Amino acid sequence: MKQIQTLIPAVAQGHWVGDGFPVRPLFGDLAFTEKISPFLMFDYGGPMAFTATTKKRGVGAHPHRGFETVTIAFQGEIEHGDSVGNRGVIGPGDVQWMTAASGIVHEEFHSQAFASQGGVLEMVQLWVNLPTEFKMSAPRYQSIVKGAIPVIALPGEVGTVRVIAGDYKDVHGAASTFSPINLWDIALDENKTINLPLSAGYTTLIFVRTGKLVFGGRTLGTADLALLTRDGDDIELKALENTQFMVLNGKPLNEPIAARGPFVMNAESELDQAVRDYQSGRMGRLEG
């Protein structure tokens, strides 16, 4: 059975990304390290109430290369546009899985409808590293609506698992990935216990979005995150109240990580090239 290796308490204060996304970085000093490979960074945005406005709130055009961004909306709406021509809006329960790969320029804003009405925004964004062989592949974009994500009842009807990526038992998730990754969004009822099957040797992280979990004699509350040991092939969790949490489980890439701002490659020289390619326009430009 896996155990807690590192517990990162909820971050009290974060920072703003643009003027639309108040985020708290959840990985702390673990970000961009081999300890959490293939994952790189994980930000929790909100929940925060926004007043109605006619202005665009969010973050303007910026580049990425060498990894993927996974944005999951829980409340509110987020609009995406990129240099490859993809555009879309994700709302509660939807997922946007963007593969930057060889390079992409994109922007993220509150949707026009959400901005004009105002309301609560809550989302997470996860950065997933790409294996070396795929870092310079063509960019792609997966817009995954809530209804396309399988929802599985937990044994004993104690809750549900949304299989965003990977597999839960015999059910395959909605997203296509470049390395083995399980990404589950789980709801567990108060005073119920579950045993989750996980792969030995994989990186596993648990993020509690709302509620309280007991695991390994430790209690995880809202916005707490735990990194588990790679040994073991399952975990047992108990909810002290109705709890919603995420499980991130992936096979480590065991490759060098070189990161600089919006680029993640394997060597500093590759980061230098990424900067040159972006500045020269080889990553494309956003229309308008």
Question: What's the short version?
Answer:
With 288 residues, the protein is mainly beta.
Describe this structure in words.
This protein has two helices and 26 strands. By secondary structure, it is mainly beta. It has a seven-stranded antiparallel beta sheet with strand order 1-22-19-24-17-14-13, with no helix packed on it. A seven-stranded antiparallel beta sheet has the order 2-3-4-11-6-9-12. 40% of the residues are buried.
Topology:
Blueprint: E1 4-8, E2 15-17, E3 21-25, E4 39-50, E5 58-64, E6 67-75, E7 78-82, E8 87-90, E9 95-99, E10 104-110, H1 112-117, E11 119-129, E12 140-144, E13 151-153, E14 159-165, E15 167-168, E16 171-172, E17 181-188, E18 193-197, E19 203-210, E20 213-215, E21 218-220, E22 225-228, E23 234-239, E24 243-250, E25 258-260, E26 263-265, H2 268-279
Antiparallel strand pairs: 1-22, 2-3, 3-4, 4-11, 5-10, 6-9, 6-11, 7-8, 7-10, 9-12, 13-14, 14-17, 15-16, 17-24, 18-23, 19-22, 19-24, 20-21, 20-23, 25-26
